[in-house]
Amino acid sequence: MNNSDTIKILFIAGFERSGSTIVNRVLGQIEGFVAWGELRDVWQHGLVEDRTCSCGKRFNQCPVWTDIIKSFFDAQQGKITPQEMIALSKLARNAFYLENFGLPLPRSVNLNVQKYLSQLENLYTAIQSKTNSRVIVDSTKAAWYATLLKESSKIDLYVLHLVRDPRGVCYSLQSRKMKGELASQWYNPIHASVTWRFKNVLSEKLSALESEQYLRLRYEDFIDRPSYYIELIMDFLKEGLSEPLFKENEKSLEMKVDHLFAGSPSSRFNQGVVNLKLDNRWKKELNPINKTLITNITKPQISEYGYLKGP
Ligand SMILES: [Zn+2]
Protein backbone atom coordinates (compact mmCIF):
# COMPACT_ATOMS: atom_id res chain seq x y z
CA MET A 1 0.00 0.00 0.00
CA ASN A 2 1.38 3.39 -0.90
CA ASN A 3 -0.79 6.18 -2.17
CA SER A 4 -1.49 9.79 -1.40
CA ASP A 5 -4.79 9.03 0.34
CA THR A 6 -3.06 7.16 3.17
CA ILE A 7 -1.22 8.60 6.16
CA LYS A 8 2.44 7.61 6.10
CA ILE A 9 3.72 6.76 9.58
CA LEU A 10 7.28 5.82 10.51
CA PHE A 11 6.84 3.84 13.70
CA ILE A 12 9.86 3.42 15.99
CA ALA A 13 9.57 -0.01 17.68
CA GLY A 14 11.68 -1.57 20.44
CA PHE A 15 12.45 -1.14 24.12
CA GLU A 16 12.78 2.05 26.13
CA ARG A 17 16.11 3.87 26.69
CA SER A 18 17.17 2.79 23.20
CA GLY A 19 17.69 6.29 21.80
CA SER A 20 14.23 6.63 20.28
CA THR A 21 13.71 10.22 21.48
CA ILE A 22 16.87 11.53 19.80
CA VAL A 23 16.29 9.47 16.61
CA ASN A 24 12.69 10.74 16.58
CA ARG A 25 13.83 14.34 16.93
CA VAL A 26 16.54 14.05 14.26
CA LEU A 27 13.95 12.68 11.83
CA GLY A 28 11.60 15.51 12.82
CA GLN A 29 14.09 18.05 11.43
CA ILE A 30 13.48 16.74 7.89
CA GLU A 31 11.22 18.95 5.79
CA GLY A 32 7.75 17.38 5.60
CA PHE A 33 8.31 15.16 8.67
CA VAL A 34 6.63 15.67 12.01
CA ALA A 35 8.06 13.80 14.99
CA TRP A 36 6.57 14.43 18.40
CA GLY A 37 7.29 11.35 20.43
CA GLU A 38 5.14 8.57 21.76
CA LEU A 39 1.73 9.39 20.33
CA ARG A 40 -0.05 6.53 22.11
CA ASP A 41 0.39 8.54 25.32
CA VAL A 42 -1.05 11.83 24.07
CA TRP A 43 -4.25 11.14 26.06
CA GLN A 44 -2.61 10.36 29.42
CA HIS A 45 0.66 12.35 29.39
CA GLY A 46 -0.68 15.18 27.26
CA LEU A 47 -4.34 15.88 27.90
CA VAL A 48 -4.75 14.43 31.42
CA GLU A 49 -1.36 15.02 33.08
CA ASP A 50 -0.72 18.23 31.11
CA ARG A 51 3.04 17.62 30.99
CA THR A 52 5.43 20.27 29.76
CA CYS A 53 5.80 20.24 26.00
CA SER A 54 9.36 20.59 24.68
CA CYS A 55 8.39 24.05 23.38
CA GLY A 56 8.30 25.10 27.07
CA LYS A 57 4.51 25.47 27.43
CA ARG A 58 2.22 23.03 29.21
CA PHE A 59 0.61 20.57 26.79
CA ASN A 60 -2.84 22.13 27.07
CA GLN A 61 -1.35 25.57 26.40
CA CYS A 62 0.90 24.53 23.49
CA PRO A 63 -0.60 26.24 20.42
CA VAL A 64 0.40 23.45 18.04
CA TRP A 65 -1.12 20.65 20.12
CA THR A 66 -4.17 22.76 20.99
CA ASP A 67 -4.87 23.16 17.29
CA ILE A 68 -4.49 19.42 16.61
CA ILE A 69 -6.58 18.34 19.61
CA LYS A 70 -9.33 20.85 18.77
CA SER A 71 -9.47 19.46 15.23
CA PHE A 72 -9.68 15.90 16.64
CA PHE A 73 -12.49 16.68 19.10
CA ASP A 74 -14.42 18.90 16.68
CA ALA A 75 -14.63 15.90 14.33
CA GLN A 76 -15.92 13.73 17.22
CA GLN A 77 -18.80 16.02 18.24
CA GLY A 78 -18.41 14.92 21.85
CA LYS A 79 -18.42 11.19 21.13
CA ILE A 80 -15.17 10.37 22.95
CA THR A 81 -13.18 11.60 25.95
CA PRO A 82 -9.44 11.29 26.77
CA GLN A 83 -10.36 8.90 29.61
CA GLU A 84 -12.20 6.64 27.16
CA MET A 85 -9.16 6.66 24.83
CA ILE A 86 -6.93 5.65 27.78
CA ALA A 87 -9.31 2.79 28.67
CA LEU A 88 -9.55 1.67 25.02
CA SER A 89 -5.75 1.72 24.75
CA LYS A 90 -5.42 -0.66 27.73
CA LEU A 91 -8.11 -2.91 26.30
CA ALA A 92 -6.44 -3.04 22.87
CA ARG A 93 -3.08 -3.91 24.48
CA ASN A 94 -4.63 -6.72 26.54
CA ALA A 95 -6.51 -8.02 23.49
CA PHE A 96 -3.21 -8.23 21.56
CA TYR A 97 -1.57 -10.34 24.28
CA LEU A 98 -4.63 -12.60 24.67
CA GLU A 99 -4.66 -13.24 20.92
CA ASN A 100 -0.94 -13.99 21.01
CA PHE A 101 -1.63 -16.69 23.56
CA GLY A 102 -4.30 -18.10 21.24
CA LEU A 103 -7.28 -17.06 23.33
CA PRO A 104 -10.46 -16.06 21.47
CA LEU A 105 -11.69 -12.51 21.98
CA PRO A 106 -15.34 -11.71 22.71
CA ARG A 107 -17.07 -9.75 19.93
CA SER A 108 -17.52 -6.72 22.23
CA VAL A 109 -13.73 -6.54 22.73
CA ASN A 110 -13.10 -6.66 18.99
CA LEU A 111 -15.64 -3.87 18.44
CA ASN A 112 -13.92 -1.70 21.02
CA VAL A 113 -10.49 -2.37 19.50
CA GLN A 114 -11.85 -1.26 16.12
CA LYS A 115 -13.37 1.83 17.76
CA TYR A 116 -9.94 2.67 19.23
CA LEU A 117 -8.26 2.21 15.85
CA SER A 118 -10.76 4.46 14.08
CA GLN A 119 -10.14 7.19 16.69
CA LEU A 120 -6.38 6.82 16.20
CA GLU A 121 -6.94 7.29 12.46
CA ASN A 122 -8.76 10.52 13.34
CA LEU A 123 -5.85 11.65 15.52
CA TYR A 124 -3.23 11.00 12.81
CA THR A 125 -5.51 12.71 10.25
CA ALA A 126 -5.68 15.78 12.51
CA ILE A 127 -1.87 15.79 12.94
CA GLN A 128 -1.29 15.44 9.21
CA SER A 129 -3.75 18.14 8.20
CA LYS A 130 -2.75 20.66 10.88
CA THR A 131 1.00 20.24 10.29
CA ASN A 132 0.80 19.69 6.53
CA SER A 133 3.24 16.79 6.90
CA ARG A 134 4.07 13.90 4.57
CA VAL A 135 5.44 11.57 7.26
CA ILE A 136 4.47 11.27 10.92
CA VAL A 137 7.18 9.74 13.10
CA ASP A 138 5.75 7.96 16.14
CA SER A 139 8.14 6.58 18.78
CA THR A 140 5.48 4.70 20.78
CA LYS A 141 7.70 1.57 20.51
CA ALA A 142 5.03 -0.99 21.60
CA ALA A 143 4.64 -3.84 19.10
CA TRP A 144 0.95 -4.30 19.93
CA TYR A 145 0.24 -0.71 18.91
CA ALA A 146 2.12 -1.10 15.59
CA THR A 147 0.23 -4.33 14.89
CA LEU A 148 -3.04 -2.48 15.39
CA LEU A 149 -2.03 0.47 13.16
CA LYS A 150 -1.05 -2.04 10.47
CA GLU A 151 -4.70 -3.15 10.28
CA SER A 152 -5.82 0.29 9.16
CA SER A 153 -6.48 0.83 5.44
CA LYS A 154 -5.93 4.56 6.02
CA ILE A 155 -2.39 4.16 7.39
CA ASP A 156 0.76 3.28 5.44
CA LEU A 157 2.97 1.97 8.26
CA TYR A 158 6.76 1.67 8.13
CA VAL A 159 8.45 0.08 11.14
CA LEU A 160 11.91 1.17 12.26
CA HIS A 161 12.98 -1.36 14.89
CA LEU A 162 15.56 0.49 16.94
CA VAL A 163 17.84 -1.65 19.12
CA ARG A 164 20.49 -0.69 21.63
CA ASP A 165 22.94 -2.89 23.53
CA PRO A 166 20.94 -4.09 26.59
CA ARG A 167 23.91 -3.47 28.86
CA GLY A 168 23.80 0.20 27.88
CA VAL A 169 20.00 0.19 28.26
CA CYS A 170 20.19 -1.35 31.77
CA TYR A 171 22.91 1.10 32.81
CA SER A 172 20.73 3.96 31.61
CA LEU A 173 17.71 2.60 33.51
CA GLN A 174 19.83 2.29 36.66
CA SER A 175 21.01 5.89 36.28
CA ARG A 176 17.40 7.08 35.99
CA LYS A 177 16.44 5.01 39.01
CA MET A 178 19.22 6.69 41.04
CA LYS A 179 17.74 10.04 40.05
CA GLY A 180 14.39 8.85 41.42
CA GLU A 181 12.50 8.85 38.12
CA LEU A 182 9.33 6.94 38.83
CA ALA A 183 9.02 5.06 35.55
CA SER A 184 12.33 3.29 36.19
CA GLN A 185 11.61 2.17 39.73
CA TRP A 186 10.36 -1.29 38.86
CA TYR A 187 13.41 -2.30 36.80
CA ASN A 188 16.21 -4.44 38.17
CA PRO A 189 18.83 -5.97 35.81
CA ILE A 190 17.00 -9.32 35.54
CA HIS A 191 13.59 -7.78 34.93
CA ALA A 192 15.04 -5.24 32.49
CA SER A 193 16.91 -7.94 30.52
CA VAL A 194 13.89 -10.23 30.28
CA THR A 195 11.65 -7.34 29.22
CA TRP A 196 14.25 -6.05 26.73
CA ARG A 197 14.39 -9.51 25.15
CA PHE A 198 10.61 -9.98 25.11
CA LYS A 199 9.89 -6.58 23.56
CA ASN A 200 12.59 -6.94 20.92
CA VAL A 201 11.30 -10.39 19.95
CA LEU A 202 7.80 -8.89 19.57
CA SER A 203 9.27 -6.03 17.50
CA GLU A 204 11.07 -8.52 15.24
CA LYS A 205 7.71 -10.18 14.55
CA LEU A 206 6.52 -6.93 12.96
CA SER A 207 8.67 -7.84 9.94
CA ALA A 208 6.21 -10.66 9.24
CA LEU A 209 3.41 -8.11 8.68
CA GLU A 210 5.20 -6.67 5.64
CA SER A 211 8.92 -7.31 5.37
CA GLU A 212 9.60 -4.45 2.93
CA GLN A 213 8.20 -2.00 5.45
CA TYR A 214 10.35 -3.19 8.37
CA LEU A 215 13.91 -2.02 9.02
CA ARG A 216 16.11 -2.91 11.99
CA LEU A 217 18.71 -0.38 13.05
CA ARG A 218 21.24 -0.36 15.87
CA TYR A 219 21.21 2.94 17.76
CA GLU A 220 25.00 2.79 18.09
CA ASP A 221 25.37 2.59 14.28
CA PHE A 222 23.01 5.51 13.80
CA ILE A 223 25.04 7.72 16.16
CA ASP A 224 28.28 6.59 14.49
CA ARG A 225 27.17 7.48 10.94
CA PRO A 226 23.99 9.59 11.12
CA SER A 227 24.11 10.97 7.57
CA TYR A 228 24.46 7.48 6.08
CA TYR A 229 21.57 6.08 8.13
CA ILE A 230 19.29 9.05 7.49
CA GLU A 231 19.71 8.39 3.76
CA LEU A 232 19.06 4.70 4.34
CA ILE A 233 15.85 5.51 6.23
CA MET A 234 14.79 7.91 3.46
CA ASP A 235 15.27 5.16 0.85
CA PHE A 236 13.32 2.79 3.07
CA LEU A 237 10.46 5.31 3.24
CA LYS A 238 10.70 6.07 -0.51
CA GLU A 239 11.25 9.70 0.41
CA GLY A 240 13.86 12.23 -0.62
CA LEU A 241 15.89 14.84 1.28
CA SER A 242 15.66 18.40 -0.06
CA GLU A 243 18.97 19.12 1.68
CA PRO A 244 21.27 16.95 3.82
CA LEU A 245 20.71 17.09 7.58
CA PHE A 246 24.35 16.33 8.35
CA LYS A 247 27.53 17.12 6.53
CA GLU A 248 29.48 14.01 5.53
CA ASN A 249 31.25 12.49 8.58
CA GLU A 250 29.75 15.10 10.88
CA LYS A 251 27.40 14.48 13.77
CA SER A 252 25.95 17.87 14.59
CA LEU A 253 22.75 19.40 13.33
CA GLU A 254 20.54 22.39 13.97
CA MET A 255 17.41 21.45 15.93
CA LYS A 256 14.30 23.59 15.86
CA VAL A 257 11.75 23.87 18.65
CA ASP A 258 9.75 20.62 18.78
CA HIS A 259 6.57 19.59 20.57
CA LEU A 260 7.27 16.38 22.49
CA PHE A 261 5.22 15.89 25.65
CA ALA A 262 7.21 12.83 26.86
CA GLY A 263 10.44 10.95 26.22
CA SER A 264 14.01 11.15 27.47
CA PRO A 265 14.48 14.48 29.30
CA SER A 266 18.12 14.63 28.16
CA SER A 267 17.09 14.59 24.47
CA ARG A 268 13.68 16.23 24.54
CA PHE A 269 14.55 19.86 25.23
CA ASN A 270 17.75 20.31 23.17
CA GLN A 271 17.62 23.20 20.73
CA GLY A 272 20.10 24.91 18.42
CA VAL A 273 23.21 23.02 17.35
CA VAL A 274 23.08 19.52 18.85
CA ASN A 275 26.01 17.12 18.69
CA LEU A 276 25.10 13.42 18.59
CA LYS A 277 27.20 11.42 21.03
CA LEU A 278 26.97 7.85 22.27
CA ASP A 279 26.82 7.32 26.03
CA ASN A 280 29.23 4.42 26.56
CA ARG A 281 29.70 4.81 30.32
CA TRP A 282 28.28 1.32 30.92
CA LYS A 283 31.44 -0.25 29.48
CA LYS A 284 33.44 1.03 32.47
CA GLU A 285 30.81 1.60 35.11
CA LEU A 286 28.31 -1.29 34.87
CA ASN A 287 28.77 -3.76 37.71
CA PRO A 288 30.55 -6.89 36.25
CA ILE A 289 28.01 -9.27 37.84
CA ASN A 290 25.14 -7.36 36.25
CA LYS A 291 27.00 -7.23 32.95
CA THR A 292 27.36 -11.05 32.93
CA LEU A 293 23.74 -11.50 33.98
CA ILE A 294 22.38 -9.20 31.27
CA THR A 295 24.66 -10.73 28.59
CA ASN A 296 23.48 -14.25 29.39
CA ILE A 297 19.78 -13.45 29.62
CA THR A 298 19.77 -11.58 26.30
CA LYS A 299 22.35 -13.76 24.49
CA PRO A 300 20.28 -14.98 21.51
CA GLN A 301 19.34 -11.42 20.58
CA ILE A 302 22.64 -9.66 21.28
CA SER A 303 24.40 -12.33 19.25
CA GLU A 304 22.02 -11.83 16.33
CA TYR A 305 22.25 -8.04 16.59
CA GLY A 306 26.06 -8.25 16.52
CA TYR A 307 26.73 -6.90 20.02
CA LEU A 308 29.03 -9.78 20.96
CA LYS A 309 31.36 -8.86 18.10
CA GLY A 310 31.70 -5.21 19.05
CA PRO A 311 30.60 -2.25 16.92
ZN1 LIG B 1 4.55 22.56 22.23
What does this 3D model show about the protein?
Helix 4 packs across helix 6 (143-150) and helix 8 packs parallel to helix 13 (288-297). The protein has one domain (7-166, 216-279). 49% of the residues lie in helices and 13% in strands. With 311 residues, the protein is α/β, with parallel strands linked by helices. The mean pLDDT is 91. The chain has a five-stranded parallel sheet, with helices on both faces. A two-stranded antiparallel ribbon has the order 6-7. It is built from 14 helices and seven strands. The chain has helices at residues 20-28, 43-48, 63-76, 82-100, 107-131, 143-150, 166-178, 189-205, 219-224, 226-237, 265-268, 282-285, 288-297, 299-304; strands spanning 7-14, 33-35, 135-141, 155-163, 214-218, 252-255, 272-275. The structure holds zinc ion. Zinc ion is lined by residues 53, 55, 57, 62, 64-65, 259.
